[in-house]
Write a structure and sequence with these properties.
single chain, disordered C terminus, six-stranded parallel beta sheet, about 350 residues
Length: about 350
């Protein structure tokens, strides 16, 4: 069964850089093992398009509204495929609006894998929220990655909760596995989104007698006082990230309570590699943390608790071994890409089998 896939990055470049032409980002290739044939385009990332005058004009328009060029290029595929799947919410907007504008009779399914949608709906203007509400009346399924988002999505979108489906996030447990090199001597901190709580973390690290390696975009730290002794690595590539993660003595993740699970990928990838993680137990992350079994939990905004648990873990070899084994087991049992996409595929196939559409 064909699936028109709307996505926001260059699959061809990713496959070439990783050296695994059969794998896709987020291991979306697992969907194909479930009988779904993914159809996408990388045309918008190629030099012929990127260097054109039209591309520059369209990119400006997309910046003011929503991405639409990819949907236009894939219009025939979207029209013919029984399923359209958007990764993530921004990629779905134009198709959802078109379906809401011209509802007609639809036999196809429109599904969205949402990442930041709940947070957007909480923080955006009433006008923008109303636009989402209108567009999403044509969306058949919204997949989301933390249980706390259900009420937000149901209330802010005003949709039937049966259209909402929680799926535990899963990472590539094959790429992220214990390195076997043993523990290094450093604390690793990795941040990739705006949900990180840098002031709290830096307060915890102040004066700590332990090497710290920090991987993030330097622009994310604007206005923050970085403690002395923190090695600024910048934004490292995936290979270097895996290497640093595999030898870290402890991994620390401090986040602010938001509607989406900030820190989720780093948490699960560190667990998959058998690392000890000290992590803020926000409402969005609670379902991923088994305190004392797979990670060490700390309350939000508490630098003293972060510091205490980092030092506790750093000085206790048996604790780190136990947490490492518990974290790896949790990923193998539940938080892996195969389980995640298996659940998504099953839901999509069921929707198509029932002939379900928004109608």
């Amino acid at each position: 069964m064909d699936v028109a896939l709307l996505k926001s990055w260059d699959f061809g470049a990713w496959q070439a850089s990783e050296g695994h032409g059969w794998q896709l980002p987020y291991r979306l290739d697992h969907l194909e093992s479930q009988g779904l044939r993914l159809r996408w385009t990388d045309a918008l990332y190629r030099p012929r398009w990127q260097g054109s005058t039209a591309a520059r004009a369209i990119q400006r328009l997309e910046g003011m509204a929503a991405p639409f060029a990819q949907a236009a290029v894939l219009a025939r595929t979207i029209a013919d495929a029984p399923i359209t799947l958007a990764m993530f919410e921004s990629e779905a907007n134009v198709v959802a609006m078109a379906r809401s504008t011209w509802p007609g009779k639809r036999a196809s399914v429109l599904a969205v894998v949402a990442c930041w949608l709940a947070e957007i709906l909480v923080s955006c203007s009433p006008t923008r929220r109303a636009a989402y509400r209108w567009a999403y009346r044509s969306v058949d399924r919204v997949f989301y990655f933390s249980e706390n988002q259900r009420m937000v999505l149901a209330e802010r979108l005003v949709v039937d909760e049966r259209r909402l489906r929680y799926v535990p996030f899963g990472i590539d447990e094959e790429a992220f596995r214990p390195s076997g090199e043993g523990d290094g001597d450093y604390l690793l901190v990795v941040g990739r989104d705006r949900g990180r709580d840098w002031p709290t973390l830096f307060a915890a690290l102040e004066g700590m007698d332990m090497p710290v390696k920090l991987c993030c975009r330097l622009s994310d730290l604007k206005g923050c006082a970085v403690p002395a002794g923190v090695e600024m690595m910048g934004y490292v590539d995936r290979s270097m990230y895996r290497e640093l993660l595999g030898r870290a003595r402890v991994v620390a993740i401090a986040t602010r309570p938001l509607a989406y699970p900030s820190g989720q990928s780093v948490l699960l990838e560190a667990m998959a590699m058998g690392r000890t993680v000290v992590v803020t137990t926000t409402p969005a992350l609670q379902g991923y943390i088994d305190d004392g079994v797979s990670a060490l939990a700390v309350p939000p905004g508490d630098p003293a608790a972060i510091r205490e648990r980092i030092l506790e873990a750093a000085g206790d070899d048996r604790l780190r071994r136990r947490l490492g084994a518990g974290g790896r087991a949790a990923v193998e049992e539940r938080f892996n890409a195969g389980a995640m996409w298996g659940a998504v595929a099953g839901d999509l196939l069921e929707l198509c089998g029932r002939g379900t559409g928004s109608g």
